[in-house]
Amino acid sequence: MAESESQEGDDYNRGKMVENIKTDMEELLEEMEKLTVRAAWMAYSYTAIQTNADLSNAMQHSEDVFLMCKEQMEKKWQEVLLESRSEGEKKE
Question: Would you list the DSSP string of 13-66?
Fold first, then answer.
C-alpha cells in the first residue's frame, strides 16, 4: 500500500515538473519572439541606414543592441537552467 502511495506521489511530482517545464518553455518562446521582432527591426534599420552618410555610427549602434539582446537571452537561459536544477534537487 505504501509503495503505491509513493508511486502516486512520484507521478504527481513528475506531472508538476512537466507543467513547470512547459511554462518555462512558453516563457522562453515568448522572450524569443520579442527578440526576433527586435532583430527584424534592427535589420530594417540596417537596410534603411545604408543610404545614410553616418553608416559607421549606425552599424555600431546595431551591434551594441544585438549584443545586449544576446546577453539578455543568455542570462534568461541561465536562470531557467538554475531553476530547473533547483527544482530537481528539491524533489529528490
Answer: HHHHHHHHHHHHHHHHHHHHHHHHHHHHHHHHHHHHHTT-TTHHHHHHHHHHHH
